[in-house]
Amino acid sequence: MTTRRPSARERLLTAADRLFYAEGVHAVGIDRLLDEAGVAKGSLFYNFAGKEELVGAYLEGRAAQRRERIAAHQEGLSDPVEKILAIFEALAEAAASPTYNGCPFANANAEATADGVEARALRQFRDWLHEQFRTLTQEAGYADTHVLADQLQVLYDGAVSTSHLDQRAEPVRVAEGIAAQILTSSTRRLDPPFEPQGAAREPMDA
After folding, report:
1. Separation of alpha carbons 165 and 103, rounded Å
2. pTM given for the model
3. Separation of alpha carbons 13 and 186, rounded Å
4. 128 and 149 in contact (C-beta within 8 Å)?
5. At what angle do helices 80-95 and 170-185 cross, to 10 degrees?
6. What are phi and psi of 188, to 5 degrees?
7. Sequence-distant (≥ 6) Cβ neighbours of residue 132 within 8 angstroms
8. Span 114-120, mean pLDDT?
9. Residue 201 above 50 pLDDT?
10. Where is this region: Disordered (predicted)?
11. CA 173 – CA 139 distance, rounded (Å)
């Protein structure tokens, strides 16, 4: 059976994913990237308008990986509170990897201009994550979903940064525990179909 050789585009994206995440999108030059991917310079400009477009594709790929990892941890769960905590479980899995290097979007954005592709990718992922938290807290019947989503996102951001600084996944577990406490103690507008483990049910409003 013949094994299909990855296309030049696939090899460029694979090399970009590894090098950009490990070393930084601006620290890695075009020649290094081409050498790692084993392609000619013409292949880069045939598949991408330039390095900026390749950086954008790399960040899109990282966003897809994050979403897929979260979805895998949420699979089979019906309780929206458990789905929220599964987002932290997915982050803990990533932080436990020996190649973990923090948030790819924040890392790339730190090196970029305010209106660049890196900044757009960071905003898009953060908006998506905030909407996940807001939607799930709404499904769980919490009263102030926007405030609660803000609190959860701050916890998530702190877990990303601290686990990167400490090079271990334990800070994510701490953040997950705090998130569970917040969810248990927060007011619910309705008597929801699901509730955090150990939480007392709130009576329905008259």
Report:
1. 11
2. 0.86
3. 43
4. no
5. 170
6. -110, 140
7. 70, 87
8. 89
9. no
10. 186-206
11. 24
Which tokens go with 129? 């994550």
Helix 117-139, helix 51-74: angle, nearest 10: 20
How confident is residue 195, by pLDDT bands cut at 50, 70 and 90?
low
Provide the mean pLDDT of the chain.
Answer: 90
- The model's pLDDT over 37-53, given as tens digits with 9 standing for 90+, comes to 999 999 999 999 999 99
- Tokens read off for 13: 């994206």
Positive/negative CA dihedral, 66, 72, 76, 82 = negative
The confidence score (pLDDT) of residue 202 equals: 46
The pLDDT assigned to 205 comes to 44
pLDDT at 203: 42
Cite the beta strand spans of the chain per DSSP E. none
| Phi, psi for 142 (deg, rounded to 5) | -75, 155
Exposure string over 126-153, b if 16+ CB within 10 A, otherwise e: beebbebbbebbbbbbbeebeebbebbb
- CA–CA gap between residue 162 and residue 174 (Å, rounded): 10
Q: Which pLDDT belongs to residue 130?
A: 98
Q: Which secondary structure element, helix H or strand E, spans residue 196, and what is its range?
A: none
Residue type, 167: Q
Domains of the chain: 8-185 (1.10.357.10)
pLDDT of residue 115: 82
